[in-house]
Amino acid sequence: xxxxxxxxxxxxxxxxxxxxxxxxxxxxxxxxxxxxxxxxxxxxxxxxxxxxxxxxxxxxxxxxxxxxxxxxxxxxxxxxxxxxxxxxxxxxxxxxxxxxxxxxxxxxxxxxxxxxxxxxxxxxxxxxxxxxxxxxxxxxxxxxxxxxxxxxxxxxxxxxxxxxxxxxxxxxxxxxxxxxxxxxxxxxxxxxxxxxxxxxxxxxxxxxxxxxxxxxxxxxxxxxxxxxxxxxxxxxxxxxxxxxxxxxxxxxxxxxxxxxxxxxxxxxxxxxxxxxxxxxxxxxxxxxxxxxxxxxxxxxxxxxxxxxxxxxxxxxxxxxxxxxxxxxxxxxxxxxxxxxxxxxxxxxxxxxxxxxxxxxxxxxxxxxxxxxxxxxxxxxxxxxxxxxxxxxxxxxxxxxxxxxxxxxxxxxxxxxxxxxxxxxxxxxxxxxxxxxxxxxxxxxxxxxxxxxxxxxxxxxxxxxxxxxxxxxxxxxxxxxxxxxxxxxxxxxxxxxxxxxxxxxxxxxxxxxxxxxxxxxxxxxxxxxxx
Length: 530
Ligand SMILES: Cc1cc2nc3c(=O)[nH]c(=O)nc-3n(C[C@H](O)[C@H](O)[C@H](O)COP(=O)(O)OP(=O)(O)OC[C@H]3O[C@@H](n4cnc5c(N)ncnc54)[C@H](O)[C@@H]3O)c2cc1C
Prior knowledge:
By secondary structure, this protein is of the alpha+beta class. The chain is 38% helix and 19% strand. It has a seven-stranded antiparallel sheet, sandwiched between helices. It has a five-stranded antiparallel sheet with strand order 5-6-10-8-9. Helix 4 packs antiparallel against helix 18.
């Protein structure tokens, strides 16, 4: 069963390796965990529902609690403390488009706020109900997850929007295809959620972001069904898909989604190169991506990220040996680890590997083969489980991500890291901060920074600590020409910064679009645009 107050399936536990714990104690000090509320106590707080009865709506306290929050740090603090404040009044599980239409009419009649719900993995407050007088209806799309059509000739698959990563890949794999969308939240996040948040998967370099994979479908709105036809390309005015991508549940509910699929690759492998320092490594990956080498993934860790990754990987003796070998080859304390993937036919993989290694060796990269890459591939969706074990040791972890042009990438990384490290200096509190580049484009790159900090004596103080960190990093991003989000979306946490990127005129246009499809203002208010 899914954990109600943390990440993932409660049968999976990923313990914190001893050397990771040692690293954190050394860098930011020993921590004391906060006491967690019990499920029993939180359930006792769920108030009476204010929704009228409906055959598709459950008012079970546990269902309402399990849909009350996502996975952002404020969500975690609310769940762990048991101080949620607001819960949805009812949860619906439609199984067909007609059910969704019916639920929207019911929501409107009841004066409810309606929140479309995919996998609940939002990290920016997308599914947290806004405080207010109206009852809240959450529409969970989990039961609409079937592959209903597979057009092999055009390579288009039609799914229910509630299909989660493993469902999608299992149904496609059985027919020899893949969607190739692998966000780290793959285990639980859904097609509808990916589209509504403009998600990016770990192998976007080969398969594209969700924008490239989303071909069309149906959006159920208060004023009718928006049919989005699929074309290989079209110059017939603005593209309807662009209105839906990143709409964060504000326009309606995606029910059916058509996606572009690819035949399963013959081969796939992940390789690791260590560079002696950051700048040479950045230049090398830029050369690879601008040279259009057919790689399926590039992930470059800065020196602290490399050190942290190796410490969190466990395997102490083996890694000590690797470090010794690397140091002899010139990749010492400042080394930066690059993981890259090659995917395709045997010949395509051979060519890509050869071309990439030529570029990386020119920058003094030391190639270490596929061992670390195999470990990564095995654990790629297990890493988030470390958040649970870090929490149990008194450490909170959060991420901040942006994208910017190449000439600004290094500067952006430095200003974000500087802002985070400096945010709590007056408290003499250290933050463990590290960055990687994981979605690379010929024009620029995403910059993804992780920060680990100690929780305080109370939940309120911990929330205020997080607010100072998040504000400092977000302000650094918008002041330095970065997008407020490369892949997590806007939700509540990024909404105040959106105007810096879209301008007043741009935001007003989106507000008008919301009013057009949702004249009663019932669809997920308070998210994306205020
Ligand atoms: C550990 C972890 C790792 C992550 N890694 C990545 C990553 O690698 N890449 C990445 O892009 N993101 C990542 N995320 C963020 C998150 O997984 C994405 O934002 C994801 O797209 C959310 O999908 P979901 O199905 O969980 O949507 P939810 O969280 O349920 O909802 C998100 C938003 O989408 C809307 N929505 C959902 N379904 C529909 C629908 N059918 N119709 C209309 N609107 C809908 C909701 O109303 C809400 O506004 C990660 C999150 C976590 C916790």
